[in-house]
Amino acid sequence: MKKTVGSLLGQKEAGKKISMLTCYDYTTAKLMEAAEIDTILVGDSLGMTMLGYPDTLSVTVDDMIHHGKAVCRGVKDIFVVMDMPFMSYQTSVYDALANAGRLIKETGANAVKLEGGAAVCDQIRAITDAGIPVVAHIGMTPQSVNAMGGFKCQGKDVAKAQQIIDDALAVQEAGAFMVVLECIPSALAAMITKKLMIPTIGIGAGVECDGQVLVWQDMMSLNMDMKPKFVKSFAEGGELMRNAFAEFDSQVKEGAFPGPEHGFKIDDEVMAKLK
Ligand code: KIV
Fold this sequence. Notes:
Blueprint: H1 5-13, E1 18-22, H2 26-34, E2 39-42, H3 46-49, H4 61-73, E3 79-83, H5 93-107, E4 111-115, H6 121-129, E5 134-139, H7 145-148, H8 158-174, E6 178-182, H9 186-195, E7 200-203, E8 211-214, H10 216-219, H11 237-254, H12 268-273
Parallel strand pairs: 1-2, 1-8, 2-3, 3-4, 4-5, 5-6, 6-7, 7-8
Helix pairs in contact: 2-4, 4-5, 5-6, 8-9
The site of 3-methyl-2-oxobutanoic acid has 12 residues, from strand 6.
């Protein structure tokens, strides 16, 4: 059954946790569909995981659309959320609406996500009013990495924690139907989850959130550059792939691959007539 805004809100009401993984391509999307993941986030983290940038700031709307289209071709039931990249919505409500429209029209995804609390509520309201579901993202917001002085846990003192609570209430009031809570103390995330009617999706925000999201390369241990504290490894995918690549290299060099079973036959008579 296709996941919808209604079914995701229903999962919160029923106390049924929501699973979300990032995804950026067709093959991985098909595997996630087979695994019955609830929601895919085509995250602007693709700037780091797929394009090799040091952060998400260089990602464009066209980059997002390129990957979003591939993901949407691979899924039927999963609810797909497209990240709005840096400066595609901060500049004006008009830009936010135009870019959200492109992300949905050109990919076939179901919702957009944007970072920020009270500061982007006008954008959230306008996009929602246009009939596009919005996921908000508060706490540690990677597009503000320069203002935050790095990828650090947010909301540890009273003023900053209260600001995150106020942001959560503001984005809900502006029309967001779900909110990502990134890198905030678990007790604060639990409090916000209780206060909100809409589902909270945590990443580094503890188990009390209504759902969890991870970057798929992180949870498969493919990321050799860093391992954030909140990441759990669900498989040694990096080691598996490295070993397979090395085995391919050896077998090609030893002439052990391809074997006869990997080749195609031709009649001896045909061969005999060739000059
Ligand atoms: O872009 C992304 O992958 C994200 C998640 C970390 C929530 O925004």
